[in-house]
Amino acid sequence: MRALTTLSFASLALGQQIGTYNTEKHPEMPIEVCTAPGSCQKEATSVVLDSNWRWTHVTSGYTNCFDGSEWNTTACPDGKTCAANCAIEGADYSTTYGITTPSSGALQLKFVTKNDNGQNVGSRFTLDVDVSKLACGINGAVYFSEMDEDGGMARFPGNKAGAKYGTGYCDSQCPGDIKFINGEANSEGWSDGAGKYGTCCSEMDIWEANLDATAYTPHPCSVYEQTRCEGTDCGNGSERYSGMCDKDGCDFNSFRMGNKEFYGTGMTVDTTKPVTVVTQFVTDDGTDTGNLKSIKRFYVQDGKVIPNSNTNFDGIDPANDVTDQFCEQQKTLFQDNNYFGKLGGMGVMGKQLTKMVLVLSIWDDHAVSMNWLDSNFPTDEDPSQPGIARGRCDPAAGLPATVEAAHPDAYVVYSNIKFGAIGSTFSAN
Asked: What EC class does the entry list (predicted)?
């Protein structure tokens, strides 16, 4: 389960009823569309808070439809009735959630924000990013998710709020903690913070990172739009490799791939300083309509272009990008299930990238303490075994109770988001 608030771009993005107590005003965050280096045009885009972290109450008053971790069974005897009885409210982005725009084209997300109701934990191409305040166990994430452009309003009549209020979220983990799915409450079978259903779609993790570790990861699915799952299709537990989506993905983490001096404090990519992150999607014929064959990564820091690190293991060909061959060799050496390849790999991922929503978040991990990103995972395996060590962090450092108490002032800043033709979005000074 992720403790986060998801933010999607309202002009790209993609509860039912709409609350009337708080005015919804989206923070402005312009992005740039580029055709050549130095030739970029700003678009008047803004961000919207995911509906899952908003106040949900009965349409006739202030009574909560969801309180703490439980549904109001009077207002929500079943999913359809709940969607009709309950409204999601406008958000106070700064005071309640710690979401601010310190300058034009920049967005700051605080990790822990104190407010009148207690506290809020978390908040959910090229881009500039500053992760210098993100300790072990915290993830500042930027990713694409194959949500509906309108938040699901057209497909699901029970959804009256739409993208303006951040509805329609999905990702490759098929999360079951989303409160409203397909215009209905996910209240049936709700237990331990999750309901009977999950919400699945493909996901491209552009950037998952903190001060110590980073990874970028494509996650294809067998479906081509946001899809509600149930049972085996959700891929939970022992059915992980039977579900709609590739939950593992095919990750490139420099530390995990054998270069332990590439990313971190004072290293080749120095995480004490802001850095420009460049992700390139390369097709087999060099056109926008070709088949995706490679996902490349570069960094720009202190005026220098830094190519991604190379793999450093016998059994994996020297490479610094994600390809089908890299994924097959990595999965074989690490003794991982190549569900990525089974679901179509790069070819399917390329098709799914044609309609996605950009998501920005900061979160901690209540399932496995972010060990999969920045420590040893699984924690009971030998870290000298290829693929187990993913970063230098102590496995216990990412426990949510520990990290929330020790680093309530943590934050991440995203800025200067650009997209366009390869080579058009960045240059060294």
From this structure: hydrolase
Residues spanned by the domain of 234 = 2-245+354-420
Instruction: List the beta bridge partners of residue 361.
Output: 141
Verify whether residue 225 is a known catalytic residue. no
Q: What is the pLDDT of residue 116?
A: 60
pLDDT confidence of 113, banded at 50, 70, 90?
low
For 268-328, give the secondary structure using H, E and C. CEECCCCEEEEEEEEECCCCCCCCEEEEEEEEEECCEEEECCCCCCCCCCCCCEECHHHHH
* First-residue to last-residue Cα distance in the chain: 42
Token look-up 């939970």 returns 236
pLDDT for the residue 5: 47
Name the band, by pLDDT with cuts 50, 70 and 90, for residue 14. very low
Residues 49-63: what's their mean pLDDT? Answer: 95
Output the pLDDT for position 123.
28
Q: How many helices (H) and strands (E) does the chain have?
A: 7, 30
CA dist 283 and 346 (Å) reads: 10
Please give the average per-residue pLDDT across 388-400, as a whole number.
97
Cα 177 from Cα 331, distance rounded (Å): 29
Q: Is residue 41 part of a domain?
A: yes
Q: What is the reported pLDDT for 8?
A: 57
- 184 catalytic per annotation: no
Residue 310 CB burial class (10 angstroms; 0-12, 13-18, ≥19): middle
Task: Look at residue 37 and tell me if it is in a domain.
Answer: yes
Question: What average pLDDT does range 380-404 have in this prediction?
Answer: 97
Which residue in 32, 146, 208, 404 is the catalytic one? 208
Give the whole-angstrom CA distance, residue 97 versus residue 205.
Answer: 23
| Catalytic residue selected from 32, 184, 203, 404 | 203
> What CATH number has the domain bearing residue 222?
2.70.100.10
Q: How many domains does the chain have?
A: 1
- Report how far residue 280's alpha carbon sits from residue 187's, in angstroms, rounded to the nearest whole number: 40
Question: Is 38 within a domain?
Answer: yes
What six digits make up the tokens of 12? 């790209």
Indicate if the pLDDT at residue 11 is higher than 70: no
> Over 70: is that where the pLDDT of 124 sits?
no
214 within domain boundaries: yes
393's tokens: 């962090």
